[in-house]
Write a structure and sequence with these properties.
Elements: H1 2-35, H2 44-51, H3 54-74, H4 76-84, H5 92-124, H6 129-147, H7 160-176, H8 180-187, H9 193-230, H10 237-286, H11 296-312, E1 332-337, E2 343-351, E3 357-366, E4 372-379, E5 385-387, E6 393-396, E7 399-401, E8 405-407, E9 410-416, E10 421-430
Antiparallel strand pairs: 1-4, 2-3, 3-10, 4-9, 5-10, 6-7, 6-10, 8-9
Length: 439
Amino acid sequence: MPGILAAVSGQFTKYLILGTVLPVAIFVTLGLVFGQPITPTSVPLVSGLQTLDKQWFTITVTATIVVLSGLLYNLNTPIIRLYEGYPWRGSAIGKWRIGQIQKRLNRATQLRDRIKTAIDILNKNQVDKNLVAQLQLRRTRVSVLTHSGLPSRSQILPTRLGNAIKAFEEYPYLQYGMDAITLWPRIVAVASKDYLTGIDDAKTSLDFFLNASFLSAMTSAVLLVAGLAFKRPFANDLTFIFWAVEVAGLAMASWLFYRSSISRAAAWGEMVKGTFDLYRWALLKQLGYSQKLVTRQSERDTWREISQQIIYQDPATRPPMPYEDTASDELVVVETTPPGIDLRVVYGTKKNLLGTTLNLVCQVTNLDTRKADDLVLRLKAKKGWDFVWGSASLRRNDATTNPPISSNMQFDLGSLDPKQQMEFKCNLMRVPVFAEGGQ
């Protein structure tokens, strides 16, 4: 435990110094250097600093840096949200910016669809494959340029930084059905220390550039107000030029620091997305669930169920999702979307006279009031038995079809309305075992 605490303390100190204290120290120094020439000595703060000896001056400046660093650290979230555009997205300029981004996305989407139509026409008429390949590359580039760093259309924010952050916040839900905000404090508990260090380093880099941008803007504004209030920059042309360059230079630095923060946000986002990619299975186990999720859709349904359970507690119309697959030892397992649909699965088998073939009949009834979508039936045949290819059939509403096989001994049964029933049949065959070295 002491070792872990020391590691956490060391990482936090590194984060605080590089992300907050360093930019504060830089801009406090710049404020003193640039502010002194344009501020009269009659101002109490200036006269007080000038009367201090070197030791007390150093102590005072250090104390100021510490206080401002603590204030800036605690304002980290509001500052990020300010740069994302949340506080002003409902304003006239915020709505205009969102509208411009959505128009660009619409134009790019239309261009992408037109290129796809052109590719389909060229393929149909068997035109030169090189031309088709060039159009496909152009379509890919259009998709990357328009959708990279952008969230879904309804979640678009007025700034590039906001859209970059919102895009990776949506990633866990779009990919896996995981609510990122709800599950983030839990998944970091199972992630490795080295990986979390990488996330902290990426976030520290983002904070440095955002804090530097914010402090540049504040210093520029203070110098502008002080110069206009005390009129000292207007004493001669040289003083005015220096003052104007300082104000404009700091304003430009604020913009450049903000632009640099966008790429840092993207790097931070890749690390955050990687956390869900790499450690979601460890989180599932840590939460106590042991279901075997064999499809992406079943995984999404499970994580949505877990997220809803954490946020809203037990569902009002049905029991919570079980912690394990209760049918894990059964010959037949049926999964559905959403999980928790009340299904009755009844099956039976009959061997032929020689005991080499097993006829399986399985009836699936939807006892729930909700429709069961994306039904998947998995056979878990015992060792020595295998599925007879072409023997599967599905009877529903007096019509018999052959269900598609999505993977080895896994069948897609489609959907099943409330109070409806379907019947699945197939044959299993005993696999012959030959003596080792036999002819």
